[in-house]
Amino acid sequence: MKRYRPETAVWHWDRSWQRFEEKDMCVAIPGTVKEIIDERYVYVDFSGNIVKAASGLVDVKTGDRVLVHAGCIIQTVSEEEAQEIEEIFRELGEQ
User: Fold this and answer.
1) Which 3-state string (H, E, C) describes the chain?
2) Is the pLDDT of residue 76 over 60?
């Protein structure tokens, strides 16, 4: 197995270490917290798609706009920020 310096490697979906390339990036999607399940999980609405997401890293409440990456809420955002990100995704989808 290849070994990479920690700052140049990422844990890949297939459970192996992969070299991080400069062109690689992760994307967080904006959604709206619809329901609190418990202290660790909530339901988030992504344009009508309701998904269970881990909320253990960020304190959230129903109605909050949040960014979700890999099933984890990584931060809350303002309504304006969420709309701006959604617009960028719409523009990318039109290309």
Assistant:
1) CCCCCHHHEEECCCCCEEECCCCCCCCCEEEEEEEECCCCEEEEEECCEEEEEECCCCCCCCCCEEEEECCEEEEEECHHHHHHHHHHHHHHHHC
2) yes
Domain count, the chain: 1
Domain assignment of residue 41, yes or no = yes
C-alpha–C-alpha distance, residues 60 and 44, integer Å? 11
pLDDT in tens, 31-63: 999 999 999 999 999 989 999 999 988 999 999
pTM value? 0.70
Look up tokens 């995704």; give the residue.
Answer: 89
Domain, as residue range, for 34:
22-94
Average model confidence (pLDDT) across the chain: 79
Residue 45: both structure tokens together: 């609405």
Instruction: Tokens for 59, please give them.
Output: 């304190």
